[in-house]
UniProtKB/TrEMBL annotation:
Catalytic EC class: transferase
Organism: Sediminicola arcticus
Domain Glycosyl transferase family, chain residue ranges per copy: 347-456
PANTHER family documented for this protein: ALPHA AMYLASE DOMAIN-CONTAINING PROTEIN (PTHR45825:SF11), GRANULE-BOUND STARCH SYNTHASE 1, CHLOROPLASTIC/AMYLOPLASTIC (PTHR45825)
Protein name: starch synthase
Keyword Signal: no
Catalytic activity: [(1->4)-alpha-D-glucosyl](n) + ADP-alpha-D-glucose = [(1->4)-alpha-D-glucosyl](n+1) + ADP + H(+)
Amino acid sequence: MNNFLFVAAENDGIAKCKAGGMGDVVRDVPRQISERGDKAHIIVPSYSRLHQNGTLRSLLNFKLRGVTYSAELYEVIPKKEFANVHHYVIHHPEIEAGGIAHIYHDDPTEPFYTDFIKYVIFCTAVAEALKKECFGKLDVVHIHDWHTSMLLFLRSYHPGYKSLNQMRFVYSIHNLAIQGIRPFDGNYASLKNWFPEIDLDYEGLMDYRYQDCINLMAIGIRLADAVHTVSPSYKEDILLPSSPPAFIGGEGLERDLQVADNEGRLFGILNGSNYNNIREAEKGNLYRNTITAIFQWLQEESKKYKSDFLAHTGEKIVRFLTEPPTFVCSSVARLTEQKFYFFKRSPDVIIAILEKLSKVNGILLILGTGDPGYEKLFREISYSHKNFIFVNGQSEDVIDSIYLESDLYFMPSLFEPCGISQMLAMRNGHPCLVHHTGGLKDTVEHLKTGFSFDGVTYDQKMQNMVSIFDQVLDIFLNDKPTWETIEKNAKEMRFTWKKSVDEYYRLLYSINA
């Protein structure tokens, strides 16, 4: 039996520990490993909340900042039980919940300041747990994004954790743009402050653009035994330099990625989608579930500053209970530059789409939280356009209903490492309109399983987005046979985790599947 540990910032296998697609991956891959008769452990931070109903498994003592830190390892109850799959969290008072999905912090004046601190503590605690063999003897440690790459720093440079070299470390890139860049020295949230005893390899650790800083995304790429991007097309994209906004590629890390590729360590494997053990949603509850969620949010102290807007949104939705729209276009995403840059830079485009929808009794429904600038933009558009429904919160019930009841799922991502949302919409037989980039290229085929737009320049992309949207509405209203064929084709697509994890075993884990 092979023994795996997954280390991540999110895990949707346990309740209230998801902000994006990483949480889905960390939930689903261990389940697939379980089906193969192997064992998987998953560990995430507690964020001062997830440990409360857990079982204490170990006390972990380790040195940081020249003093002894003590953290607690808890095993916690998952949403669903699977054989040989175990879920854990690390609790320490400084590993706090952030404002984004009660996970991440947004430090606008010093990016990554708070998150750097909590993930340094988390990773060092995990390293100590590995040293103590809290999960037994491990074959593979699979780590995810910059939040966990500190484990590779500890394995390579910390004399107390040389035993980690006995394990194979795999590094998955979910979002190359978020890199965890912090100073080497001269700051509380700096590398030297937390590891004063280590002689730093500045050249091997530095960010090429900010040479007085460590780049934790780069550390994952440089030091892992295997590096993984979550789609084949995204792997090809990031080997090239970025030229924003027309093309988003390696984001300054293309040199490291090219080295990893030349060394045979870089692999592009498409994420899968879950077709079994999924939450059952009942059709016809989209607006009822949304109103219920709004009433719940209105009672939360943290939502008081937006209570007027939530009430405004609820009032807009009530009429749909008796007079539903003819066409529902939707999107579920964290509000970031990656997901909605086009709308922020060119709000006239979203206005044009809303005007087209209003002529056919259609709505655009976007659910998400995130960047305050994007939240403000969408709130303003909602106040001025009655067919724009901005659900400014997170609710599994509402999200399930959106995937179940939309006519078109919209993903105008500036770039997309893989994208899971389009797979979930297609699973329910709903076509998607996507930007022809990254993993969206690998999953949506124009006029066969959905719709896509592209262009050589930014202006061409915007023109094509609007013209393809016209095409979507024309087919939906005037060519039902073609629309139904596209729906059927979308629903028949299967991006299975079995196929993806076969590739994981062969390429990432070096284990015969």
